[in-house]
Amino acid sequence: MVQRASSLSVQPARPEEFGDIAELTVRVYADGGLAPPDYAAELADVAGRAARADLLVVRDGDDHVVGSVALVLSGDFGEVTRSEDEAAFRMLVVDPSQRGRGLGELLVTTCTDLARAAGKRRMVLSTGPEMTAAHRLYERLGFRRLPERDWSPVPGIELMVYALDL
């Protein structure tokens, strides 16, 4: 599976890239104020994520990781999925220096294409209320809010749920 947009490609992550993915994810989420500091260890656990999801990356023309996402087609890592016909994605991240180039959209549409190919009928995701740029992307791609499925993984953290029928 390879999706391309100009000189960018989305492919499965390689184990030797896990350190770069961890650094990027922590930098964007924890250092960017999108996740509490005590969540940094989970953000950095790329090997754990790869064991429970399909870890995808977008690489630039020099083969450097500039974005990543964990696609959940089965199992419990989706947390927000409620049935076998739902897929989820988690920890979508794009290098801040690469924003505005369509990488987030490329990662999301790759996830939805793969979920559709796997026979899933809906893509769901959780997002924090402060992630307004991500909300705009999801809504532009046809995702809709499911406020009845909003949830809290730990006290003080409230997550919003979006869904797209595939």
Automatic annotation (TrEMBL):
GO cellular component, one term: ribosome
Domain N-acetyltransferase: 8-166
InterPro entries the record matches: Acyl_CoA_acyltransferase, Bact_Acetyltransf, GNAT_dom
Keyword Transmembrane helix: no
One MF term in the entry's GO annotations: acyltransferase activity, transferring groups other than amino-acyl groups
Keywords: Acyltransferase, Ribonucleoprotein, Ribosomal protein, Transferase
Record's protein name: Ribosomal protein S18 acetylase RimI
Taxonomic source organism: Blastococcus tunisiensis
